[in-house]
Amino acid sequence: MIKIAPSILSADFARLGEEIAAVEAAGADLIHVDVMDGHFVPNLTLGPPVVAALRKVARQPLDVHVMAAPIDDWVVAFAKAGAAIITVHAEASLHLHRTLHLVRESGCRVGVAVNPATSLTVLDEVLPMVDMVLIMSVNPGFGGQSFIEASLDKIRRARAMIDASGHAIDLQVDGGIKADNIAAAAEAGADVFVAGSAVFGEKDYAAIIGRLRAEGETGQARRGGR
Ligand code: DX5
Ligand code: ZN
Fold first, then answer.
1. What is the pLDDT of residues 122-152, one digit of tens each?
2. Which residue from 36, 49, 176, 219 could staple onto 183, CB 3.0 to 4.6 Å apart?
3. C-alpha distances out from residue 120 to 33, 98, 148, 170, 207, Å
4. 199-216: pLDDT as tens digits
5. Does the predicted model carry a pTM greater than 0.90?
6. Which domains, ranges and CATH numbers included, belong to the chain?
7. Pocket of ligand 1 contains residue 111 by CB under 6 Å
8. Catalytic residue among 34, 37, 63, 170
């Protein structure tokens, strides 16, 4: 089974509540919330008060992707605001073990993200601590960028690490996911797909989410068939 997580970064920020209701009605499994601090990444988005407001209207879990450094104080704030999943960047924490522990203690599901230039070796010591690994398939900071093709091999290697670990860990991919490349990412082993511009750039959210899901499932079936 795959999950589609529309990123509200590409939604109409003046109508966020309506946009979330619309993608939920269209079949979204998670609501991906991109937090950017203007320091770890060269863009600013939103903070805990907005997440708290979204929590009141969202029915699906809020998948909060925090692109901020330092990170630890934000973990506590976003957990209080109602995040279901908090994903932190391996690059943003000097003491990743401590940060991931903090997410776990906060009661949220634990995600760890790696940028395109970051080796998967950072996961070696922390894999048993997480519920989700996020492979960034663009450099974080902006929606609408092109998928970095080398991410497919990285997803394959991350999937092998997860399978070898014996833990039930989701593998999320974020950046440049479209209807024409989601099958390849699924075949490589991803099972949670963030899509910002691909979803919110279309008028018919149900049609695009349905198409992303169908293509993703096709890719996953190809993987299973190997
Ligand atoms: C990028 C963000 C992504 C972004 C994806 O830094 O983490 O979640 O919104 O947008 P698209 O799908 O347009 O690449
Ligand atoms: Zn994201």
1. 999 999 999 999 999 999 999 999 999 999 9
2. 219
3. 24, 19, 16, 15, 35
4. 999 999 999 999 999 999
5. yes
6. 3-223 (3.20.20.70)
7. no
8. 34
